[in-house]
C-alpha cells in the first residue's frame, strides 16, 4: 500500500478558494475525488514534478504516515509541543480534532467552517492565511516523544526503540530547542501552507498543548527521488545523493518501517524520527580551501562524485577518501549496513549575536530503530568526522512516529491511546 495519493498531474489541484467556492467546508475530499481531481499515484514517478508544479495534494490516509517516504517538499515547519492537560480524554479529543483538521488542510481545505462566513460573534475556525493557496503537497506527520509516555499511565506502551538519545561528544544542546512530548512535521512546497498548518494545530490545541520549540526550514537537504536533481546544503554540496528512495519498498520495510514483530504492536507501520538542529559555521567554511572542503565530505563540489570517481551516482570507493571523510564514516559499508532515511532542511534564523548567521541543517532522520540507526552512526561521526570542525549539534529530539491514519474514522495516536489497542 502506498502512502501517497497525489493529485493527478493532468488535473491541477483545486485551490483552497476554489474548494470553498464549490460548496464550502462541508464538502469532503471525496467530493474532489468525485470531480476527478484526485487520483491514486505511485509514491514517486514522472508526475512528481508536475504535481509539485500544480500544487497537488498528497493523500493523508495510508498504512504509513505521509511525509516520510513522500518525495521531499521544498519547505518545512516543524513544531514540538508540551502536553499541558492532565486529562486523557481531553488529549484524545484534541488528537481527533487535529486529525480532522490535518485531513482537511492536506487536501487544501480550510479548517472547520473556514475563515469567514460563520458566526460573527465567534473567532473563525480557520486563521485564513492559506485561503486561495493550493494544497502544495502538504504533509503533516505526528510523533510522540519519550516524555509523553510518562503521562496518562502509558509507561508500559513506550517502545524499547524509543530510547533517550545519549550525549555525543561535541553536543552543545539547548534545552529550549530540544525534546517535546509531541511533534508535528509540516512539509509543503509553499511555506505559508506549512506555517498555516502548524499554527492552526497549535490554535486547536490551546490549553491542552503548548509549543515548546519550532523550526522553519527551506532548501531541502535530501532527496527521496534519486532521478531528480539533488539539492545542495549551505556548504554548497549536493546532499541526499545516497538516501532511501520513496520507491524502494524493500529498503523502506527493512530500515524505516517498524514491524509488529519489533516489540510494540501499536507502532507497526510507524517509524522513529531523530531531529537534530545542527549549526553550520558557514563563515569558517567559506574561508576553507576547496580541496579541504572536498576532503571533508569525500565527494567533489561540482558534480558530487565520490573521491576518485566521475559521476554523482558512481559507487563510492571509500578507501579513496580521507579516513575522516564524512561519507567514508557514514556509508553503510563502513557501518555493518546501517541505513537511515534523511529528510533534513537548511535554516537561517537571524544572527548568533556575534556577527555570524545562525545557520545550519535541521537534520531529520527516519529509521526502524534508532539503536540500530542514528545512535551508532552519530557515535562514529561525533568521534572522528572531519566535518565536526565546522558544525555543532545544538538541538535534539526523538519521537515515535505512529502508523498512518487508515480512513475517515481513524485518528492520530489511536493505536496508542485506545484502551483495547
Ligand atoms: C550539518 C551536518 C551535516 C552535513 C552538512 C552533511 C552533509 C552530507 C553530504 C554532503 C553527504 C554526501 C551526499 C549524500 O550522499 O547525501 C552526506 C552523506 C551522508 N550523511 Fe551527512 N551531513 C551532516 C550530518 C549528518 C549526520 C548527523 C548524520 C547521521 C548521524 C549523517 C549521515 C549521512 C549519511 C548516512 C550519508 C550517506 C553516506 C553514503 O551512503 O554514502 N550526516 N552528508
Automatic annotation (TrEMBL):
Dyp-type peroxidase N-terminal domain boundaries: 65-218
Give the domain of life. Answer: Bacteria
One matching Pfam family is Dyp_perox_C
Q: What does this protein do?
A: Involved in the recovery of exogenous heme iron. Extracts iron from heme while preserving the protoporphyrin ring intact.
What detail does the entry give on cofactor binding?
Binds 1 heme b (iron(II)-protoporphyrin IX) group non-covalently per subunit.
What InterPro entries does UniProt report for this protein, alphabetically?
Answer: Dimeric_a/b-barrel, Dyp_perox_C, Dyp_perox_N, Dyp_peroxidase, EfeB/EfeN, TAT_signal
Q: Per its UniProt entry, what is the enzyme's top EC class, as one word? A: oxidoreductase
Location(s) in or outside the cell: Cell envelope
- Molecular-function GO terms, alphabetical: ferrochelatase activity; heme binding; metal ion binding; peroxidase activity
**Catalysed reactions, semicolon-separated:** heme b + 2 H(+) = protoporphyrin IX + Fe(2+)
Q: What is its EC number?
A: 1.11.1.-
Q: Which cofactor does it need?
A: heme b
Provide the primary localization: other
Q: A cellular component term (GO) from this record?
A: cytosol
Specify the protein name: Deferrochelatase
Query: Would you identify the family this protein belongs to, as annotated?
Result: Belongs to the DyP-type peroxidase family.
Please provide the Gene Ontology terms (biological process) for this protein: iron import into cell
Amino acid at each position: 500500500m502506498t502512502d501517497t495519493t497525489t493529485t493527478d498531474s493532468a488535473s491541477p489541484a483545486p485551490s483552497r478558494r476554489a474548494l470553498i467556492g464549490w460548496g464550502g467546508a462541508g464538502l469532503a475530499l471525496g467530493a474532489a475525488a468525485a470531480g476527478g481531481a484526485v487520483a491514486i499515484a505511485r509514491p514517486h514517478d514522472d508526475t512528481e514534478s508536475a504535481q509539485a508544479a500544480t500544487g497537488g495534494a498528497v493523500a493523508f490516509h495510508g498504512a504509513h504516515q505521509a511525509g516520510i517516504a513522500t518525495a521531499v517538499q521544498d519547505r518545512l515547519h516543524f513544531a514540538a509541543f508540551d502536553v499541558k492537560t492532565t486529562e486523557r480524554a481531553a488529549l484524545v479529543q484534541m488528537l481527533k480534532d487535529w486529525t480532522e483538521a490535518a485531513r482537511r488542510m492536506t487536501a487544501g481545505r480550510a479548517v472547520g467552517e473556514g475563515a469567514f462566513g460563520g458566526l460573527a460573534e465567534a473567532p473563525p475556525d480557520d486563521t485564513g492565511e492559506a485561503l486561495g493557496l493550493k494544497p502544495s503537497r502538504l504533509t503533516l506527520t505526528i510523533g510522540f516523544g519519550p516524555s509523553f509516555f510518562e503521562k496518562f499511565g502509558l509507561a508500559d506502551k513506550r517502545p524499547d526503540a524509543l530510547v533517550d538519545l545519549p550525549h555525543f561528544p561535541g553536543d552543545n544542546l539547548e534545552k529550549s530547542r530540544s525534546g517535546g512530548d509531541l511533534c508535528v512535521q509540516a512539509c509543503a512546497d509553499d511555506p505559508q501552507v506549512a506555517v498555516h498548518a502548524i499554527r492552526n494545530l497549535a490554535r486547536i490545541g490551546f490549553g491542552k498543548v503548548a509549543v515548546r520549540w519550532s523550526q522553519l526550514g527551506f532548501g531541502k537537504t535530501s532527496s527521496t527521488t534519486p532521478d531528480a536533481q539533488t539539492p545542495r546544503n549551505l556548504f554548497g554540496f549536493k546532499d541526499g545523493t545516497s538516501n532511501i528512495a520513496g520507491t524502494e519498498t524493500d529498503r523502506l520495510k527493512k530500515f524505516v518501517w517498524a514491524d509488529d514483530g519489533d516489540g510494540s504492536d501499536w507502532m507497526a507501520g510507524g517509524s522513529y524520527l531523530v531531529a537534530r538542529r545542527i549549526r553550520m559555521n558557514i563563515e569558517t567554511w567559506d574561508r576553507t580551501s576547496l580541496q579541504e572542503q572536498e576532503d571533508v565530505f569525500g565527494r567533489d563540489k561540482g558534480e558530487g562524485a565520490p573521491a576518485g570517481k566521475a559521476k554523482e551516482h558512481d559507487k563510492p570507493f571509500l578507501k579513496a577518501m580521507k579516513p575522516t571523510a564524512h561519507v567514508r564514516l557514514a556509508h553503510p559499508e563502513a557501518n555493518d549496513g546501517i541505513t537511515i532515511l534523511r529528510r533534513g532542511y537548511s535554516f537561517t534564523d537571524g544572527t548568533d549575536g556575534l556577527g555570524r548567521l545562525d545557520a545550519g541543517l535541521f537534520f531529520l532522520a527516519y529509521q526502524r530503530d534508532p539503536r540500530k540507526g542514528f545512535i551508532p552512526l552519530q557515535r562514529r561521526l561525533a568521534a572522528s568526522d572531519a566535518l565536526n570542525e565546522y558544525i555543532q549539534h545544538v538541538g535534539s529530539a526523538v519521537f515515535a512516529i505512529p502508523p498512518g491514519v487508515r480512513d475517515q474514522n481513524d485518528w492520530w495516536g489511536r493505536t496508542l491511546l485506545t484502551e483495547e489497542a
